[in-house]
Amino acid sequence: MHLYQPYNNVKRLCTVLLSAAFWLAYIPGATAQTLDFEQCVATALRQNPDLSVSRAQLDQALAGLRQAQGSRLPKLTASINATRTNDALNAFGLKLSQRNATFNDFGASQFTGPNSLGVAPDNLNHPGNVNNFNTRLEVQLPLYTGGLIEGNIEQAQAYIKAARQGDVAARQQVIFNVLQAYQGVHSARAFVKVAKQAEAATASQVKNIENLVKGGVVVKSDLLSAQVHLEDVRIQLMQARNAEAAALDQLHILLGIPLAEPLDVGAPVMPSAVAGSTADLRAQALADNPKLKAMRNQLGASQAGVKIAKAGLYPQVGLMARQDWNDNKVGFSASSYTLGGQLSWTVFDGNVTRGAVDRASASHAEQQARLLQAENGIALQVDDAYRKAEEAEFRLTARQHAVASADAATNLVNKRYDNGVATITELLGAQTQQDKAHADLVAAEYDLAVQRASLKLAIGKLEPDQL
User: Fold this and answer.
1) DSSP letter, residue 178
2) Torsion sign (Cα): 372, 373, 378, 379
3) Is 289 inside a domain boundary?
4) Is 91 a domain residue?
5) Is 5's pLDDT higher than 50?
6) Is the residue at 456 inside a domain?
7) Among 371, 365, 370, 355, which Cα is nearest to 303's?
8) Which residues contact 5 (CB under 8 A, 6 or more apart)?
9) pLDDT tens track for 233-282
């Protein structure tokens, strides 16, 4: 019995492993996650690094406003300073602060009358070591800063508005990029489908021509030409498949999904046409484009920067209140207070402040010029996208008609070639024209979607619920 025990254990282990292998064979592999366009946009807006940057910029602007507003409030500081000195003046002053000064500190023991007025008292000139611990609370309150605090607050508020509009602009740009990649996948797959159909049709032609060659109806050079055309079609099929993979990779990156994670797309999306004339759309873009709004707020920030620089030309007024405790050890003995006000005005600083004002003014003028340049660019982008969207729509209709005509033409040429009326050149030419018509139709559909989205991006209306 002991002899067969190891054999039984091995047999049982083999049975378990075979059962596990059997069940593992039926476990489905990793399936691709399928996301429709809205899901892709939601994922990108949640995970895209570009939006993380814009949100961080907004957080910086909000922190800047808190910092600027805090400058209006009193500033309270607490400190503890330890001092040990035998300097005559400082030592006597520290004893006074500690309320510990005595007549003997003046050298009273050496004063014997008027004849000793010329004697240098040792206790006053050589006081020995004195220890002091100063505990202090101090409050400072600015009353007037020449517009410095107000300018900082105005600038911070303008930066917040600019950052928020920049976040909207970044969001819409991400949506546009996702649409390009999302539709790019569908476009590439349509090219793959066209290439597969072309491969099947060309392979059928090659087989048909082989039969005709065997029957002596056509010459072998026709077969060779058809075979060359088949290889070209297969190359186009490989290129289409690579384009599909590249589009999916690009979508992975935009969504923040690892490339190794399977991903698939849902139904294609086609943005609706934008109503209105170019003049109306141009005016709408100038008013609503988030990039322009951000730049206008940046212009306001630069104007506040001029105000900040000019603050150095005006006086500064503030109040101060201080509470001190001085002792030869850490404690709260010898309490004293100090109240004060300060007025300072830089009368001359070698034109340092005036130079800062001139530099801020020049920066403001530069920002104005950049805004005007951007406005002209957006107006041009609207006109260009409007024309291209109209052209793409017309091209799509034309390509649909071209596909129908090319399909009919290819069928006719096939029949004529089978009857010995058409040449191989005509047959391959018709097939090439048919393949091109189908590919052009796919490209036209993609271009129309992109141009409509580009127009909506220019006028600041590219949101998933506005497509």
Assistant:
1) H
2) positive
3) yes
4) no
5) no
6) yes
7) 365
8) none
9) 899 889 989 988 999 999 999 888 899 899 999 988 899 999 999 999 99
In sign, the C-alpha dihedral spanning 142, 147, 150, 156 is negative
User: What's this model's pTM, rounded to 2 decimal places?
Assistant: 0.73
Half-sphere exposure of 414 (CA within 13 A, CB side): 15
Identify the pLDDT of residue 14: 41
Nearest to 302 by CA among 154, 80, 89: 154
Average pLDDT over residues 84-90: 93
| Domains of the chain: total | 1
What is residue 10's predicted lDDT score, i.e. its pLDDT?
A: 36
Separation CA 82–CA 93 (nearest Å): 15
Give the separation between CA 135 and CA 80, rounded to whole angstroms: 5
Burial class of 213 by CB neighbour count within 10 A (0 to 12, 13 to 18, 19+):
middle
- 286, containing H or E segment: helix 278-288
Q: Are 371 and 297 in contact (CB under 8 A)?
A: no
CA–CA distances in Å: residue 275 to residues 267, 281, 467 = 25, 8, 13
Q: Are 110 and 152 in contact (CB under 8 A)?
A: no
CA distance 241 to 233: 12
SS3 346: coil
Host domain of residue 445: 33-78+148-317+349-466
CA–CA distance, 217 with 229 (Å, rounded to integer): 20
Tokens (6 digits) for 449: 């979607």
Give residue 78's Cα distance to chain centre. Answer: 41
Spatial separation of the C-alpha atoms in residues 299 and 285, rounded to whole Å: 18
On whether residue 47 sits in a domain, the answer given is yes
**Length, in residues, of the chain:** 467
Q: Report pLDDT for 195.
A: 83
CATH code for the domain in which residue 170 is found:
1.20.1600.10
